[in-house]
Amino acid sequence: MPKRKSPPETTQPPTIQDTTERAPKRQKPASSSSSSHSFSPSEFSPFALCSKWTTKDLSKSKATLPPLPPILDPTLEAAALTHSGRKKSPSDLSYERLEWIGDVYLELIASELIYSTFPTIPEGEMSRRRELLIRNSTLSAFSIRYGLDKRANFPEEFQLAGRPKGSTANAKRKEKALADIFEAYVGAIVRSDPANGYKNAVAWLKALWGPLLEQEVKVEEGGGREIDKEQNPKVRLEQLIGASHVKIEYRDLPGTGERWVDKQPQFGIGVYFTGWGEENVLLGEAWDFGKKGAGHKAAEKACGHPVVLTRLVERKRAFMAQRAIKRAEEEEGGG
């Protein structure tokens, strides 16, 4: 019987599994002790970099203005300091895109620092403190302190003398432009240094912003009680005119939560009093970024109200005196 011929060898296309098996192993990058790359992208964590403020930090940052971090890319640096009004063609760079991303970085860093430092305050108060750090008036002042206003390439109407025979930007427009420059500069710091830009921006802004919240940080380290019992205006008002048969009410004012200041809603609280011969008297009202703060401010005003300082306090004193006399008589009669 003739031998069966073996089938000719054929080359099969490699499967996905084959390709994977034959692929050379990826080499891990050599570790480096250089400080220029202290963390890898996989280790990046915005909140881990934003450690809380302490009074020890603030004592250092108050002494001197923290140094301005450099922008490592000259093209980004030029763009960050160039107003769109100085563009000669649509392809020319200006600070708009960097200002947009820088605004995001600033809000994120401010939010993380506040969230880490103040674990007990409500979201309304967190928003108020963040707005203090990132509002135009704050950022424009920083631009001036660092001399960015002198380095910036602004149109002539933003200069002191204004455009010759033309318009002059008003104070609000100048403030907005200087704040935009600061936001763009922050964006350029981060974008020009993928390895360390964000970390450097966090360290710089933490030192720069810290003194603005010094009092709040001290309060937090003291136990988070901004107003102790002896200084709490609500407690003080109760001590001045309160009693078991009188009523002190804290009510929302019309429009509360609908008024906005610095992009944040404002809450209004009024203190109303019934007792000692008075009916539903408004003793004080106040507005703040949170109801708790508004209530404290309203109580503070009520403590200085003429009706409180004259009639109501005297009536309570007279009542307490009469009650003391009555109790003394009852004790004598019982004895």
From TrEMBL:
Pfam families: Ribonuclease_3 (PF00636). Signal peptide: none annotated. It comes from the Eukaryota. One of its GO terms (cellular component) is nucleoplasm. Residues 29-43 have a biased composition (Low complexity). One of its GO terms (molecular function) is ribonuclease III activity. Keywords: RNA-binding. One of its GO terms (biological process) is rRNA processing. Residues 1-43 are annotated as: Disordered. PROSITE patterns: RNASE_3_2. Residues 80-194 form the RNase III domain. InterPro entries: RNase_III_dom, RNase_III_sf. Residues 8-18 have a biased composition (Polar residues). SUPFAM superfamilies: dsRNA-binding domain-like, RNase III domain-like. Gene3D superfamilies: 3.30.160.20, Ribonuclease III domain. This is Ribonuclease III domain-containing protein. It comes from Triangularia setosa.
